[in-house]
Amino acid sequence: xxxxxxxxxxxxxxxxxxxxxxxxxxxxxxxxxxxxxxxxxxxxxxxxxxxxxxxxxxxxxxxxxxxxxxxxxxxxxxxxxxxxxxxxxxxxxxxxxxxxxxxxxxxxxxxxxxxxxxxxxxxxxxxxxxxxxxxxxxxxxxxxxxxxxxxxxxxxxxxxxxxxxxxxxxxxxxxxxxxxxxxxxxxxxxxxxxxxxxxxxxxxxxxxxxxxxxxxxxxxxxxxxxxxxxxxxxxxxxxxxxxxxxxxxxxxxxxxxxxxxxxxxxxxxxxxxxxxxxxxxxxxxxxxxxxxxxxxxxxxxxxxxxxxxxxxxxxxxxxxxxxxxxxxxx
Length: 330
What we know:
Elements lengths: L1 E6 L3 H12 L3 E7 L3 H11 L2 E2 L3 H5 L6 E4 L6 H10 L3 E4 L7 H12 L5 E3 L7 H11 L6 E9 L6 H7 L2 H4 L2 H11 L3 E9 L4 H5 L5 E8 L4 E7 L7 E8 L3 E4 L8 E4 L2 E4 L6 H22 L7 H20 L3 E2 L2
Parallel strand pairs: 1-2, 1-4, 2-3, 4-5, 5-6, 7-10
Antiparallel strand pairs: 7-11, 8-9, 8-15, 9-10, 11-12, 13-14
Helix pairs in contact: 1-11, 4-5, 5-12, 6-9, 9-12
């Protein structure tokens, strides 16, 4: 059994905390949050205790691993401190909103032997795993065109957008990771255009709510990702990979699959109401994969290199959006 401490008791922290508490291989050691009352509420729900400080958690030799689900601006410091304390680490994305800070944190962790997993949970969605297998097996032959859609049902609060890092970091970073993971290819450039169509305040905080990113990959293939913060029909996410021989697709997922045939019309089940309802199962799977890796003594995946790659793409995409030009990706 692994003793795991949780940093962060907000929305994502609560999701991870509940999944940790439900895993019979895990002893949820304690919860720390800068808001002590929030940590206390979650600890009471999950039957564990709170920690008074980060140092208390990291100095406890009985704690095997930590889950970093606190605010993004704390990730890099907690990552570095936890690695130096000899803890295994599960870290929410991104590593930091600053690429320079993220790179320094990754370099610091590299000086230790701490195992680290970055939570790109959509890798654990069965349809996306099936896409990756089909491409790796050569089913479509050479990858030539990838089409991705990420369309949300409603605009997040403006206060959230102000600190989110923008649509490239907050929404598309998962798809940048999936693009590389599914195809096995690296991007060499990105061009992004976007607009604030839902609320003028989005533009006022330097963000967009509707965008299209076009990436050229190392073999010359093209990937197009369309993203919307607000659509009128639920949450819509899909990926299509077109090759020189055939095509594979992880289609739009409805809440059910029954078609009702009536006079003059056909009624079908609609889309999930939000991104979490569509992806909830992947959070449990990602935490499970982390514990699996620790028990087997192998490196968790996705790792810090994957996290840094996705961050570099998001950083280049943000530059392209702001400056209106194609940006090379190192």
